[in-house]
Amino acid sequence: MTRRVVITGIGVRAPGGKGTKEFWSLLTDGRTATREVSFFDASGFRSRVAGEVDFRPEDEGLTPRQVRRMDRATQFAVACTQEAVADSGLAFGDVDPHRIGVVLGSAVAAATSLENEYLVMSDRGREWLVDPEHLSPYMFDYLTPGAMPAEVAWAAGAEGPVTLVSDGCTSGIDAVGHAVQLIQEGGAEVVVAGAADTPVTPIVVACFDAIKATTKRNDDPEHASRPFDATRDGFVLAEGAAMFVLEEYAAARARGAQVYAEVTGYATRCNAYHMTGLKKDGREMAEAIRSALDASRIAPETVDYVNAHGSGTRQNDRHETAAFKRSLKEHAYAVPVSSIKSMVGHSLGAIGSIEIAASALAIRHNVVPPTANLHHADPECDLDYVPLTAREQPVDTVLTVGSGFGGFQSAMVLRAPEGGDR
């Protein structure tokens, strides 16, 4: 019999606030946290808005040595891990460390530190031959993505399976999905899982500028992210992280743990079609959704809320709408759907985990977060996208999905804990 897996701890660092409580408050208030880029001079870029996190590592208890060693994304992951572990109430020291695992997702890993170090070594790009005299002693940590989950493992005391998942914008959902499978298969009893990305850097902004995927609505940063709106013109790049404590259900119950949600189904597919292109029929995402529902042993009409990828590009929003209709059938028109990217932007690999956090909190509080900035619905996006205002209603089952460059399409089902423990 397959072992059941539940979420017992959550830690979030996202634009607009510190920690999980402030994150949820922002979502339920329908507030946006996107603003003009402040981390560097973005005046020469096509897109000059972002979702930036007001993050002070010293406030997170990180020492100067840790700050020097860790990339910003790694700092986010460790801070979220500390919050999630404390939130879970689990005494990690009482668990066999070989039965504790870590799965971390990231799309661009230590992009922040790599770019900063290049600017130092090349004298801000003026020297073709870089000077190794100025090389950071931690350059290898920045170059090797595996340093990120290793730092989380040290923070959690995990000596079991430790893994990095990096497959673009579905990294955050796929990392949690892999963690769930580890517990189901008996490879671990407890897994700290989630994702972190800090891509608000000149090189990453330039990459998305080049393909015109990000918004050019620079005169109105707060309203620049407009998923499913007819006036949208691209996504808002952001940074962030979310980490979870996942446990085997019976063990969590035995210790009297609070349970946010049970992860009952997960699936991922690839369209093998185009690096950035999506087919209009949404078939690959629909297949992932159907598989996740099948794993959960539930019918489509059981879904109470769909946490959409909702990036705010015309291609994605229409593809996703088609996928919901294809997989959920008539129920697609009845179930509320929303995109939190309208409020916190698109943090690449991290956003899938941040959206899982929003989904679990929607179950905990029986509230569906809204899609902010949705004033003029795209006629081709004709579902209930919960515009502007959060909606109080029973939420027992949530479908959350992700879509990434490379053709990755992932889906996960979360269900309310048994016995009304919310």
Q: Given this structure, which CATH class of the largest domain is correct?
A: Alpha Beta
Radius of gyration: 20 Å
Structural class determined from secondary elements: alpha/beta
Number of helices: 13
Give the strand tally: 15
Low-confidence stretches: none
CATH superfamily of the largest domain: Thiolase/Chalcone synthase
- How many domains would you count in the coordinates? 2
On the 0 to 100 scale, the average pLDDT is 95
Return the CATH architecture of the largest domain. 3-Layer(aba) Sandwich
Biggest sheet overview: 11 strands, mixed
- Named CATH topology of the largest domain: Peroxisomal Thiolase, Chain A, domain 1
Taken in chain order, the helices and strands follow as EEHEEHHEHHHEHEHEHEHEHEHHEEEE
Task: Please tell me what the overall shape is.
Answer: globular
Give the N-terminus to C-terminus distance in angstroms: 26 Å
User: How much of the sequence is in beta strands?
Assistant: 15-25%
Helix content: 25-40%
Please write out the topology.
Blueprint: E1 5-14, E2 17-18, H1 19-29, E3 35-36, E4 49-50, H2 64-69, H3 72-88, E5 100-105, H4 111-121, H5 139-143, H6 147-156, E6 162-165, H7 171-184, E7 190-197, H8 202-210, E8 240-248, H9 249-254, E9 261-270, H10 283-296, E10 305-307, H11 314-328, E11 337-338, H12 341-344, H13 351-365, E12 367-368, E13 391-392, E14 397-404, E15 408-415
Parallel strand pairs: 5-6, 5-7, 10-11, 10-14
Antiparallel strand pairs: 1-2, 1-8, 1-9, 3-4, 7-8, 9-15, 12-13, 14-15
